[in-house]
Amino acid sequence: MADRVVLASSGGLETSVGIGWLRDATGKDVVALAVDVGQGDDLDVVRQRALDCGAVESLVVDAKDEFADEYVVPALRANALHQKRYPLVSALSRPLIAKHLALTAKQLGADSVAHGCTGVGNDQVRFAAAVAAIAPDLRTLAPVRDPGLHRDRAIASAQERGLPVPHVESSHHSVDQNLWGRSVQSASLEDPWSAPAEALYASTHDPAVPQQADEVTITFDRGVPVALDGQRFSVLRLVQELDAVAGKHGVGRIDVVEDRLTGTKSREVYEAPAAIALITAHEELESLTLERDVLRYKRGVEAEWAGLVYDGLWFGGLKRGLDAFLEHTQQHVSGDVRLRLQGGRATVTGRRSEQSLYDFDLATSEAGDEPDRSPARGFTELWSLPGRITARRDAAN
Length: 397
Prior knowledge:
Elements: E1 4-8, H1 13-26, E2 29-36, H2 43-52, E3 57-62, H3 64-77, H4 89-108, E4 112-114, H5 123-134, E5 139-141, H6 151-161, E6 174-178, E7 181-185, E8 214-221, E9 224-228, E10 231-232, H7 235-247, E11 253-259, E12 265-271, H8 273-289, H9 292-310, H10 317-329, E13 335-342, E14 345-352, H11 360-363, H12 374-396
Helix pairs in contact: 1-6, 4-5, 7-8, 9-10
């Protein structure tokens, strides 16, 4: 029905207030859609809140396994870290939410979708780009950004209308969470000199508090984590299990000033225990099973892949091409990696694989076990030849 607009609903202040704005500004009925990507919210409450705020229908989609299998796994193949620092937490979930937003709109015959993003961040671009790539005929609305509904005005509007949203203040931090991690920004964090208060963290313990280390062994099959300490799990369950044990040791706390795709800088704090542990383990297994030139080239592809996803181009042609390369590199990335978790760090203490390229006989320097080194002299001479020729030329000038 073209007289409907489908809103990506989180149950928070902005999307709750946005329901009324969309209805008033467009004359359309609002259908709220909440997508469960492991954010841990009570989505029955989110669903009811949308109805109480004026939505004619409120839908919930359980996409946790889809998120784990089709979004987290590709990110792990890419060892994806934006600016070499943090996993793509929010950026990874936005294309999935946008996908369900667009599909729901098409199923309902709606001609427009909406999100609760402001005009200063990355997510407004991510939603719009993803929807455009999936359903180019849909119009994307932003009921917070478009009317300039700043947080103070949104709070006042909620109070005036008696909307059933949790008590909020303009000075509160903005939090986003999913299976892959948790991000916090705004309020006190807008001063890059201000240290994060311990109360800001929710999924990690203080790494400065001494406690007994834990050791875990992660098993990979073609780059996909399939078991933890010998027990097989789905990707979703494995991430959840590892999140708990790594979080207990404060693994995955990240405080970073990042470059937004809009050109501004933003200071954010992240918690991503399982993501950091898995990327650490996966990179180590690749170092054992991939050739040197593949590893070297892959590092550049990883940075490009992370940049594309951060910039909202999940469904773009270049990103799909890089996916094909990354998937191909994983055909021999199978084996076990042992991690020691303590004091905020996930430290590799062992790795093994039947696909290993490590050869003890070639690596050893023990007397009596050395392989034939006679080819080494000729190789060294040839390898040094370009440098010798260049040095002679330079000395003559």
